[in-house]
Write a structure and sequence with these properties.
Number of strands: 0
Radius of gyration: 15 Å
Oligomer: single chain
Order of helices and strands: HH
Distance between the termini: 16 Å
Length: 64
């Protein structure tokens, strides 16, 4: 269960990468920059979802 603590930050790293990619594509006027922003938003959502799931699991194991 220790790996769940670190996998949530992988989503955060990918979110930063895709937002950066979206801004760089937007400055060059490439068309699918909205796709990069969308993937970045999904990665950010998954970061908070995984963090919430990890905290719930940690609280469950501490209460038992």
């Amino acid at each position: 269960m220790k790996y769940l603590q670190f996998t949530q930050y992988i989503y955060l790293i990918f979110a930063v990468f895709f937002v950066y990619d979206g801004f760089s594509k937007m400055n060059v006027s490439e068309e699918p920059y909205l796709l990069s922003f969308g993937i970045g938003a999904v990665c950010l959502f998954m970061f908070f979802f995984r963090r919430n799931f990890f905290n719930k699991a940690k609280n469950r194991s501490n209460n038992s």
